Fold each of these.
Amino acid sequence: MNDPHVVALIYRIEHGKLIDYSKAEPLVLEEPKFLLEVNDKQVRFDFKTHYATEVDARRSIEDYIRFWEFDTELKYGPDTFRLKFVKSEIVDRDPTPGMIYAEPLRVEVGIGPPALSISIGVGRYHPPPSDIGIDPDVEMIFQRYLRFRSGREPLLSFSYFCLTFLEYAAKRDGHSGRKREAAAEKYRIEKNVLDEIARLASQKGGPEARKAVGTAADRYLSQNERQFLNREIQRIVRRMAEIAHSDSQNEIT
């Protein structure tokens, strides 16, 4: 090609058995550098910016895709949203007369009957976020979160890890005061929320308890307490990503 131009990149949403996108409405978003269209698990990036190679075009949306995968799996759990590259559409803006260029065709075939399973049916695709970043701290806590969501780490263990990591990171990064106050300041989370996580993680749990005091029969987590922990640790993981994007955040209460 004399003057190649990447018109679009096509991806496919891949996921496990725990989520069902078959009834999800199409999603269309106008972004500064491309038009995003999602329909029937096909994701199309139509570029407004010129890229001469597939490699350059893909590199330009790497972070966008990563943040989108992060935010969706934070909401729905592991193996619920991954974008797999399918193909590019490239044209020659200055073609040689009489020359025809054929783009390579990528074909992938899945074989085997679908397995029966219970899945979450979603009515719309989770939209790409614009308010998060991913640094090493966020990546680490997110991998632990996926481990927890997949059932490989108890709720109380992960809750306590989240709390102590916030405290460690706040002191490491120079925030003054006691470690919990420092964590509340750095991550803009009300200290009462962190105190309640600490109380439940240290004093409750029954067979899930971290400490012996939490194993008594009257120390089992109530449904409300379990819901509180599940909700708050998800908010904490996202807050870390929000802080990685910008320090200016409203306080979590």
Amino acid sequence: MQPPRSSHFFLLLLSLLTYATASILTITIPPSNLLPNPNSLPASTHATLTTLRSSPSAPSSSSSLGTSAPAGLRLKAPLSRKSSFVFNIPSGQVQGPQSFLLDVYSRDYVFAPYRVDVDADGNVAGVWETYRGNAWENRGVEKGMVQVGEVAVVEAKVMGTRKFYEERAGFSPLSLFKNPMILIVVFALGVTVGMPYLMDMSTSALFYDSQPPFHPTINAPSTNQPQKYSGPRDTRGIRETFPQGANSRG
């Protein structure tokens, strides 16, 4: 037996009224030094809002701005074309003030987690920075939030990049000189090869320094020393050139 159409219309009207009074939380990713172009993030990037008082038996629902679940469970929003995440927080399903943990999951980057407090009407009361292992009562630095009507806009913070593999540095000949053993071997080789040449040069310098200085008048050979006798001179050629009596008067 099919239910009457009036019940379907009543449920549809109730859901519209619930989402009409919902508060919208928008998480934007601004450009930064680590992430200059947020549009380069993969499509698998998403954000979640998780509360401590979750109820596993509560059903989940989806909205046009992103997949969401009733307050008290887990809200999830995919990455939009504007590099942002949009959460719908239905006020009709919030039972008193609640606190959510905002996590942004990305394949290549690590984002800082936030604490998001929501009041009983479903409005965002504040956003604070937090970290793993921190007591939930200890609130960190409050994030600046822009409130435009029912929409609260908060900027996400990139902490770093994910590295799954260690990059090995390429081989460089200059890296050998960073090894102390290589430096010791090079120094020992230089001393072994260069020390004999240094000693030879120093010995020659000492020898020349030990010699007396040279003086041209003192150290020059003497010309007054007696010459060695080499025997009688041969005068026959002189006699043939000048015969006897050639120069005598007739």
Amino acid sequence: MSRVWAFSLPFVLVLCLSLLLAACGGGRLYAMRPAGDADPRTPDGVTRMAYDGASRTWTTTTPGGRTLTATLDAEGRVVRSQLPGFPATDRVYDARSRLASATTGTRRTTFAYGAAGALASVEDTLGRRVGIERDGALRATAFVHTDGAKSAYAWSAMDDLTLVTPPGKGAHALTYGKDGQLATYLAPGASPIAMGYDGDRDLAKITHEDGTATDIARDSAGRPSRLVYAGGEVSFAYDATSGQLRTLTNSSAQGPQGLAFGWDGALLRGGDGDRRRPGRGLLHVRHDVAEGDGERNSPGHRIMKEDGEWP
């Protein structure tokens, strides 16, 4: 017997902070809702998940008609998942139910674990290996790459990341407020960058190394609506139904410039709705469904170009 649930898809806004703040679609948080209760933030309602007990398979169908299948083993672990047009991903687990390998087409990634049970290394199909060193609390203190390059990490008693040291470079320092939110970031040889937050704990201000500030205003939904920096400001507009970013406008001394975003469900799409930059070509996004070469072009790799040939 099949069972059906419906889930909402809140749009997660990702902020890229510099002189401009770009908001874009990221991961999705699935929350239980009664079947048939439309979610105004998705194009035509809901995402449905149906479970077939005989085959132990979940089938997820998005409002855009895309489907994802996930097959479970007798222990309830996902052993195979697949999107239409993509190679299936098969997973193997060890005796302690930890992921031992994941294979997509001809590409295989293996995982090894230490005596304490924490992940100790990851190796891809090309033989590139990353080893993970840990402290007594099993926090990662170093990543060691195939060529011996080592990046180091330090943590506070509250498990906040306080130092990041790239291979052969100086340490980057981070401090936190009493509420655990990032307060300052200090790069080697630079002045600190400070962060300030509003009453909802959302980022509201960034003070840069040179003392200039970037202020972030938000709408009633908590999304960035306006960003004011030393050289001008950036405004954001969202779709009233889906909540997805529709336009980004930068007003500066050089005059206003804008980007328009077109979406196909949760994916940026090509065509008239793509991002446009004044005086530049149309910027396209291609969602590549090829198997990939095991290195740069993996399934789903998004390639962006202006008018002309694909790279």
